[in-house]
Specification:
Layout lengths: L7 E2 L7 E10 L8 E14 L5 E2 L9
Antiparallel strand pairs: 1-4, 2-3
Length: about 60
């Protein structure tokens, strides 16, 4: 199990709304790449206009 050493901040939303429920870690920063890890985000992260989604150092990724 690993956790980030610092918070991971994503860009603030510029419209719409939604909830991030899953994540993936891959080999490319965008586009087609190989997914190395994936899973559910608990608790879910609310996203929307003006909201900056964040994963804190309390976030854990566990390899089965």
């Amino acid at each position: 199990s690993v956790s980030p050493v610092a918070a991971i901040n994503f860009p603030a939303g510029t419209g719409g709304s939604g909830t991030a429920t899953h994540f993936s870690i891959g080999t490319a920063p965008s586009g087609a790449g190989k997914i190395l890890y994936k899973g559910a985000i608990t608790p879910n992260v609310v996203c929307g206009n003006g909201v900056t989604p964040q994963l804190t150092n309390a976030t854990a990724i566990t390899e089965d």
